[in-house]
């Protein structure tokens, strides 16, 4: 087997080892799809990414993103973790302030600065769910229907259905039924009172990816921002906390620019660096 440069990066952690890890294989050239999926299943992380030369001349690199169960066209914490790993390994972007990633949804800008932040991609699916889908989501979450303030598809690749609950306490109290959730990837958001640890609390349930609950989720937070900022429910700048129910402590920084671009950022730190035998 070939030894390939490898990093494991903690993303969105408010402190070390409290975020969401992503495994990054730096050069996946020559590896078949089943080899990529087998390694992603073995790492047993919510995502594993594989760097490749870009096919679009506007991109700095190309990445393929795998859960333990399938490939995704886009995911958020893998985007930040991969950009971090690529830069740390000596990657030189064409533009000093932005790394351009090529992935399944196209080109995604990753802004450099105090922290890495990606530009939220457009939604592939939006609008309210039908009555049957909403009823399934409510049953899977185990909440009364009247607790759901609003719900919408916020799919930017992973297929998220977003559910807005009254407050952070309702989000943290959830004990979902993953069998009833079959076929849905659910994200839930509720607001913290002023002076809380963050502005909102988020949880992500994605059993279809062999990840019942994801610790900290960039794509979901991006989807919530695109939906709720533009409806005036969330402010132009806010911080989301995620992972609390799992003993993690994630912080996702969201900012809506004057030009309408939503930036989703957080801390990135390499925890493991070595080689992977593939």
Structural class: alpha+beta
Helix run count: 5
Tertiary shape: globular
Low-confidence stretches: none
Output the helix-strand order: EEHEEEHEEEHEEHEEEHEEEE
Give the distance, in angstroms, between the N- and C-terminal Cα atoms.
Answer: 5 Å
Give the percentage of residues in beta strands. Answer: 35-45%
Number of domains: 2
State the CATH class of the largest domain: Alpha Beta
What is the residue-averaged pLDDT? 97
DSSP summary, beta strand count = 17
> Which architecture of the largest domain does the CATH hierarchy give at level 2?
Roll
Q: Which sheet architecture does the biggest sheet show?
A: 17 strands, mixed
Give helix % range: 10-25%
Characterise the protein shown here.
The protein folds into two domains: 3-122 and 265-277, Roll (Diaminopimelate Epimerase, Chain A, domain 1), CATH 3.10.310; 131-253, Diaminopimelate Epimerase, Chain A, domain 1. It has five helices and 17 strands. The protein has helices at residues 33-43, 76-88, 131-141, 168-172, 218-230; strands at 3-11, 20-25, 48-52, 61-66, 71-72, 98-103, 106-111, 116-119, 150-153, 160-164, 185-191, 200-206, 211-214, 237-242, 250-256, 262-266, 268-277. It has a 17-stranded mixed sheet that branches. Helix 2 (76-88) crosses helix 5 (218-230). The longest helix is centred in the first third of the chain and has 13 residues, at 76-88. The model has no long low-confidence stretch (mean pLDDT 97).
